[in-house]
Amino acid sequence: MLVVQKFGGTSVGDLDRIDNVANIVKSYKERGDDVVVVVSAMAGETNKLLDYANHFSKTPPQREVDLLVSSGERVTSALLSIALQSKGIPAIALTGRQAGIKTTSDHTKARIMDIDPEKMQKHLKEGKVVIVAGFQGINENGDVTTLGRGGSDLTAVAIAGALKADKCEIYTDVDGIYTTDPRIEPKAKKIDVISYDEMLELASLGAKVMQSRSVELAKKLNVDIEVKSSFKPEIKGTLITKESKDMEKVLVSGIALDKNQARVSIFGVDDRPGISAEIFEKLANKNINVDMIVQNVGKDGKANLTFTVPQTEVELTKEVLKEYENNTENIEYDTDIAKVSVVGVGMKSHSGVAAKAFKTLANENINILMISTSEIKISMVIDEKYGELAVRALHKAYELDK
Amino acid sequence: MLVVQKFGGTSVGDLDRIDNVANIVKSYKERGDDVVVVVSAMAGETNKLLDYANHFSKTPPQREVDLLVSSGERVTSALLSIALQSKGIPAIALTGRQAGIKTTSDHTKARIMDIDPEKMQKHLKEGKVVIVAGFQGINENGDVTTLGRGGSDLTAVAIAGALKADKCEIYTDVDGIYTTDPRIEPKAKKIDVISYDEMLELASLGAKVMQSRSVELAKKLNVDIEVKSSFKPEIKGTLITKESKDMEKVLVSGIALDKNQARVSIFGVDDRPGISAEIFEKLANKNINVDMIVQNVGKDGKANLTFTVPQTEVELTKEVLKEYENNTENIEYDTDIAKVSVVGVGMKSHSGVAAKAFKTLANENINILMISTSEIKISMVIDEKYGELAVRALHKAYELDK
Hints:
Two copies of one chain form a homodimer.
Chain A: E1 2-7, H1 15-30, E2 34-39, H2 45-56, H3 62-69, H4 71-86, E3 91-94, E4 101-103, E5 112-115, H5 118-125, E6 129-133, E7 136-138, E8 144-146, H6 151-162, E9 167-172, E10 193-195, H7 196-204, H8 212-221, E11 225-229, E12 238-241, E13 254-258, E14 261-270, H9 275-285, E15 293-297, E16 302-310, H10 314-321, E17 330-334, E18 337-343, H11 353-363, E19 368-374, E20 377-383, H12 387-397
Helix pairs in contact in A: 1-4, 6-8, 7-8, 11-12
């Protein structure tokens, strides 16, 4: 079996943790697997280097920032290779360049364009563990680029795709994806299997273990991901894979809570075609991430338009909407909201899932301010102070603690 | 003027020191020079990374060690580029690979084979300060190599040669080469100009500012080197350049002391042709660095052979000479010796320089155990405890304190 394993910053946080990683890799190698390992920088290194850069400039040139921070993963890859070889396991450390990872030129947020797997395949054929410095590649100028947040996950998934690996294991400091945040609901259970789409809904809704772009890439490349803990590698993690009929037996997979949204309400918008489109186009031009949108017609041919944006983008949103202040009745901004989402592919084939959500919140006297649904998700905006209560009530209602 | 500047570990030891370097470079750029800067790793970084490697193995694989330690210079080069750009000076950081530095494959001690200056020239033409990560290049496999001790000096000299730079400035924590070690003789004076050959004699004899290999390369490529202090950049340093008639006016340039040698004496060697050659060939095969050699004929057709080796190689020398124990009278090893050397191109055209050295030591009642001379150097082996006294006496005798 060919396995790609990715170890994040806390998993390689010090020399003892790197030794632990070497032991995990060794156990796979000894049972006969071929292994490619993707590593992050040791915890804290990337931020230290960014602090160095910011000492000289609040806006350091991004090409140099990439050269600077990419050194962190190089260090880890070399150390892991040394650790493995000291244990008698043949290994070789490759930089992003050497692993054939070609990216766009957008420094600090490049996208992977292509992977030439030849060098990795050659070393695998020679029986070596191939260790790749994550988070980085080169652009067409031959300059080092980095992939932005979650970049090492992305490297691992892309390599698994290029090598047609049997599995991509993402090692982190939690042992899988949970039905909800265990800090909110201690009865939260680890999910055994989840579909890409469910994971995407959970990731974008605040489950921070996997970045959406890595899950999207895994879905596109059809790469099976297992999220596991490097602290307890013997415990089975959560498998993220393509949707199957089997999964639909489970009505709801998880409950997500997002308290970083704000609600924007525009009252008395002219109810003519194109007005909403105009507003959302202007917001998009400023890269403001609009999430839920609800529009309903009021009286006198005027409509009310409500949507959510990240709290960090409220000020920018206010600027964009300034020009509408005079030709609408009122614009309100509310940051004291929470978005609670119920996610599960089972809803596709079961009715009554949404009704149960509404009833559950009603039973707790929680007022629902906005509702938005997709095939596999029901999102509800409520008063922020009821967020945790809503999560616990829904978790129980869908029997996720069983 | 095109200047190559090299800044060592203490000169880039922290963010404030890097800022200081940026100001030095900026002052050159602003007066109209083109500047290429070669940087070392921040002081302590390389050793820290080597300690990491040694945590896993006493003999870590050298290819991975090179990948590991080369990251130190990359970090400094990126930071200096950021610092310069933040001061409004266009700059670009290049890795050894990007600077076109091709080396042999000998990891951790590679030699520079070739430099392709095209990329550096392109950026210089665009008005940028080119910053190169020192100490590193790539081999024919595309793997990162490092150049060993003094590698960044070597990078700077080689680049100065490849670009036909007007000057190569080596910035360090002393402001030049001194007539002798100021810790031994406080009256030691900074030398203004010194020839390559004199510097080579001084370097190999214990003046640790410049490694011999960098001076040798400078001589070969005809690169003028100025050794300066990054702490006092306004002060003129020592110029190392090709020998000129002018230099011969100065009788003696400096006095060097080397206390790390040991004396090996073989008594009663058969006085037949080839026996010395045989012994020295065997020592050379073990990479033992034999320095001074004296041979004289004793009685009964037997010769006495005396030579010096580094103290660290005494044990290995003993092993090699074991086979001669039975067919010689005696083999003695003495580590309590010091080698004092008087260096100066002036001796070529002046007589009596050696006689003055012998007389000076005699006046101090210091017995000379061995003598060896070259065109520009007189070396004398004496009892170790008289080393400093001899240096001070010679320094005075040749009026180096004037």
